[in-house]
Specification:
Blueprint lengths: L1 E5 L3 E7 L5 E7 L1 H4 L2 H17 L7 E5 L6 E5 L6 H8 L4 H20 L2 E2 L8 E4 L2 E4 L6 E2 L20 H4 L6 H17 L9 H10 L9 H10 L14
Antiparallel strand pairs: 1-2, 2-3, 3-5, 4-5, 6-9, 7-8
Helix pairs in contact: 4-6, 6-8
Length: 242
């Protein structure tokens, strides 16, 4: 019925199920479909999305990971991404940031309880539905017990929102998603990430070595973000604590 978006992995289309429900269909790029390692990653994404399907994500409707063009269909979530909402309408008021924090903490609780670390929580992967946020795109998520790296030495993630341990290629667990949540809340409240903008190396350096810039955040949400953005994973609250 239309195209919802495109990215490095492929395109996302709006479609209809046989019964007339709106679905989002993620179709993998043809060249990537030839890559056995990428196909394995997509297979894992589908498995993870099925595991955590629920109130806080877009439930999986159907998928084909083995066909010539791999695809994944999830329920369509009507509502903009946090990235689009902030770019079009500006930062959210403090009360809305707190509501967002509650919804995302609940989502991460469910995701972590399923034994999954998302590893790419960022404004583009948060959809704002009427009844609360949804976390999407489990493309680089991992089981908690799995390796932190895709290839030796390759860090996958979004530089301004990943945790210091992810940026350095160290072991990544649920606290890494909490760090990303803090960065997402800072973006929601101020319109920019807490480590500024610039090249990937500059952002990664700041994530690891510099304190977050939270001066523009309203006081009632700043302390929450500060706790999430602790450099030491052990100092961050859990999703349930939040």
């Amino acid at each position: 019925r239309g195209r919802l978006g495109a990215g490095g992995m492929g395109r996302v289309y709006l479609g209809l199920s046989p019964g007339g429900r709106s679905v989002a269909v993620k179709v993998i790029r043809a060249d990537l479909a030839q890559d056995a390692e990428f196909r394995a990653r997509f297979r894992r994404e589908v498995a993870v999305a099925r595991t955590v399907s629920g109130l806080f994500t877009a439930p999986v409707i159907d998928a084909d990971v083995d066909g010539p063009v791999p695809w994944l269909a999830t329920a369509y979530v009507p509502g903009p991404s946090l990235a689009d909402a902030v770019s079009q309408h500006g930062p959210l008021p403090a009360a809305s940031v707190l509501a967002l924090a509650r919804g995302l903490a609940e989502a991460l609780s469910a995701i972590h309880a399923a034994g999954v670390v998302h590893r790419d929580l960022k404004p583009a992967n948060v959809l704002l539905a009427e009844d609360g946020p949804r976390v999407i795109d489990f493309g680089i998520s991992r089981g908690v017990e799995a390796s932190a790296l895709t290839h030796t030495g390759l860090v996958v993630g979004s530089p301004g929102f990943m945790s210091p341990e992810q940026a350095e290629g160290r072991e990544v667990g649920p606290p890494s998603d909490i760090f990303s949540l803090g960065a997402v809340l800072a973006f929601a409240a101020t319109g920019q990430g807490p480590f500024g903008s610039g090249s990937t190396p500059a952002l990664v350096y700041r994530v690891v070595h510099s304190g977050p810039q939270l001066d523009l955040m309203p006081a009632e949400v700043r302390s929450l973000a500060e706790r999430c953005l602790a450099k030491d994973p052990a100092m961050r609250p859990t999703a349930a604590d939040l």
